[in-house]
Write a structure and sequence with these properties.
The protein is α/β, with parallel strands linked by helices and about 300 residues long. It is built from nine helices and twelve strands.
Amino acid sequence: MTCLWCPRKCGIDRSSGGAGYCGETSALRIAAASIHQGEEPPLIGRGGSGTIFITGCNLGCEFCQNRQISQQGLGKTVSPKEFAEIGLALQRRGAENINIVTGSHAIPGLAEGLASARELGLTIPILWNSSGYESLESLTLLDNLADVYLPDLKTLNTGLAERFFKAPDYPVYAASAIRRMIETRRIRFRGSVLVSGVIVRHLVLPGHLDSTKEVLHWFAEHWQGRALFSLMTQYTPVGKAEPARRLSENEYKQVLQWLEDFGIDGYYQEFHIEDAWLPDFRRQNPFSSDLSTPVWHWSCGTIPPPLTGKSD
């Protein structure tokens, strides 16, 4: 059966071992799972977010911070049952949610794994953390599974979408997907933790602030009050990627001013120029120990909890 699940519609028979544009067959591959503290406050709560990083991607961002898994193939094949067990391990470790990172190209396999996890006792919310580049047909598989949507809205400019994300039709598909997500999920909190709703993320590209202003205007006009917004300013040039510099302090101040001008009461990152937070998925803990506690890794499987130094 040819693959038409994502907007690429590359037509590859992934079920017979062919690799689609995403670089993956129909087999579900995972790179890492961890209790992550680096997400927005309502996703972390007290226990942290139970992130599961999926191998492969249907975009082509040269500056991708996760390029080891999105473009270079680090990861291990897991069955739906194994995937479910990873989710349950995160729940046992106290995760507030299961956070599926970049799974748009693997929705059928993930839907099966998530359904299996629910049957085996997964009760915490499921987050769909994606690039936003997905079709409405594929999103229907998540209707009874995803509680919170966390899509990117990278740009509404077709020229930038082609140049930086290798997808000139990205704005059309992302806007349509986000509309559907917001229309099907109302914002709901349990205490301080988001258990239903949508957070739209936008990464500011240095030197391309007009694109950010367009995204902010679109959100304020259509979805303010019906979804949450997260402005990300962590862009870091990787290798020879363009843009070749970080955001300047003046650019940072400008985009924060636009947040205020448009009346968007959202989340935003503090200004910093460090890159210590960049992940390395060759390590069992791809992030710093302050940001994450590893639970599963492609190289070794399940990772035991850290010793506390206390006796029973």
